[in-house]
Fold this sequence. Notes:
2 domains, 11-stranded antiparallel sheet, globular
Amino acid sequence: MKFTVFKLSSTNNYIKLKKQKSNFFFSKPDDITVFHFNEIKNDLLHVVFRVSDEYLIGTKKGVNHLNLPFSQFVNSFLFKDKGFFLIESIDPKYVEEIVKYIKKNTGMKLDYYPFNKKNMGKMVSALNAHIKKVEYSNDVGDDFYKDFVKFEEFERINNENNIEYIVLSVKDRFVSINSKGIISVDNSDEDFLINFTEVIVNALSNN
């Protein structure tokens, strides 16, 4: 699963998401509804959005095109006490539309949360992972990469450069993090996924 990290301006109205009724008969192609709303833990909510979309099928020379409606389900995790929202990044347009939907229906504003040096360091330290690859650039724009990096060396690289992308091994599962606030993680194990998101958010929340 690949997801984008957002910071919420406030979580006071999060319960309004639960009150949004799922509609199985969409009136407009850009409609979004909440399909699933579940409290996993006191602070952690799992919200699944149902996005209406269409496949557009046609030929190069033909004039007739076929529209096939379908529903795309998008997972998200809301940490209501810490004010973080992790939205599955199936397509940037879906993420953009869901962010608009949340603001419209709850009043909660979501801001992209890009990772700076401090955040990168906190996440890697908290995950206690093996660092498989680091891609980084210096202040004049030169790009570099390094494989199999120890944490002490990562700290030095992070302090002296700008980390663009990092690949980690966490409990024998590959994880990638980029500086734009997008994280990719294996979601085949639900317990691992929940624990992983908690570790990430706790790290980002600590000053």
